[in-house]
Amino acid sequence: MIWRLDIILLLFLVATALIVVRTKDLLAAALIFGAYSLIMCIVWQQLSAPDIALTEAAVGAGVTTVLFIVTISKTTRREE
Amino acid sequence: MRKVVVLCSLLICYVLLLFAVVNMPSMGDPDSITIKGPPGRGAVPRYLEKGAEECGGENIITDIILNYRGYDTNGEVTVIFTALIGVLAVLNRERKKISFSDMEQSPVKHSVIVYTIVRILLPFIFIFSLYVILFGEVGPGGGFQGGTIAAAAAIIFILVFGYSYSIGKFPTSWRINFEGIAPLTFIAMGLIGLFLGKNYLTFMFPQFSHTTNLTIARSMLMIIEIAIGVGGAFIFTSIFFAMQREDRS
Predict the structure, then answer these.
(1) How many CA atoms lie within 13 A of B95 on its CB side?
(2) What pLDDT band is residue B98 in, cutting at 50, 70 and 90?
(3) Which residues of A have a CB under 8 Å from any CB of B?
(4) Is the dihedral of CA A46, A47, A48, A49 positive or negative?
(5) How wide is the angle at C-alpha B244 spanned by C-alphas B240 and B247, nearest 5°?
(6) Is the pLDDT of residue B100 over 80?
(7) What pLDDT was estimated at residue B249?
(8) CA distances from B63 to B46, B142, B222 (A)
(9) What is the dihedral of CA B182, B187, B193, B196, to 10 degrees?
(10) Is B98 in CB contact (< 8 Å) with chain A?
C-alpha cells in the first residue's frame, strides 16, 4: 500500500464520478466513465483483489464503454 | 422545498453508510471478529486453511466462488443470461429483415493500418482470454474475466470488419447454441449431486459427499470455469450484435 498513490487515486475517482454526472456531452461522459473504471481497477489492485481488478478492467473499462458508445452512436450525443 | 427534502434524505443515507463503513474490519486485520468469526466456527480461517485441499483449486478466490459459494455463482451466471434475455426482448433479433446495404459499411473506414493491426492482434487477444480462463484455477482470472476479454476481441472484429461480414462468420443460428451454456452446465453439475442421492451441488464438494476425489473436483471446477467463459463471451457478443442491428430511426 502506497498511501500517497491511494489518496491521489481516490481523489481522481471522486472527481471523475462527479464529472460523469455533470457533463452534458454523453460521449465525453461515457469516456470519462471508462477512466473511472480504470481508476477503480487500480484501486482494487491496491486493495489486493486482483480478481476483481481484472473483472473491472475487462467489463467496466472495456465492454461497458463500448456498449455505451454504440448506444450513443445509435441515438443522440447531447443530453436534453 | 424539494431540494431540502432531497438533501436531508441524502445526508441521512450518508451518515448511515458512514456508520456501516466505520464498523467494517480494517483491511488485512487478522484479529477482526468478522474475519475470525466465533471460535472454531469462522468461515475465513476454514477457507484459507483447507480451501486448496478441499476444492482442488490453488486460487482460494476460485474455490470460494465456485465451491463454497456455488449457489451464489449459480445465481450470478443466471443473472448474466437474464440480461441477454432482457436485451433481446427489447432489441428483437428476428423482428425485421436488415437491409445489408446499410450495414455494409464498416464503422471504421477502410484503413490499412487498422485492418492490419486488428488482424495481428486478434489471435493474441483470444489466446490471452483462454489463458485467463484456464489460469483462474491457480491465479487471478477465471471464467467471467476471460469470457469478457474474448467478447472484447469479437467486438473489435465486428467493429472493424462490419456487421454483414461478421454475422456471416458468427451466424445467429450457431451462436444461439452457446448462449445458455454457462447456467446449463452449472445446473447440470449441481444435478449430478441430486442423482447420486446427495444435495444440489454437493458433487463438487469432496469433503461433504465422500463419493469423489480431488481430481474429479478439480476437473469439475475446470469444466464450470470454461463453460462460464464460453457462455459469457457469446452472451456479450450477442448483446453487441443486437445493438448493432438497431438503426437510427
Answers:
(1) 10
(2) low
(3) 47-48, 50-51, 53-55, 58-59, 62-63, 66-67, 70-71, 73-75
(4) negative
(5) 150
(6) no
(7) 46
(8) 12, 11, 11
(9) -110
(10) no
CA atoms in the 13 A half-sphere facing the CB of B158: 25
The partner residues of A25 in beta bridges, in order of sequence, read A78
Q: Which residues of B touch A58 (CB under 8 A)?
A: 145, 148-149, 152
For the segment B98-121, the average pLDDT, to the nearest whole number, is 70
User: Cβ–Cβ of B243/A50 closer than 8 Å?
Assistant: no
- Give the residue, B148 or B60, on which the prediction is more confident: B148
Please tell me the pTM assigned to this model.
Answer: 0.83
pLDDT tens digit string along B168-181? 888 888 888 888 89
Picking from A51, A63, A71, the nearest residue to B142 by CB comes out as A51
Angle at B138 between CA B136 and CA B142, to 5 degrees: 5
Which amino acid type is present at position B101? S
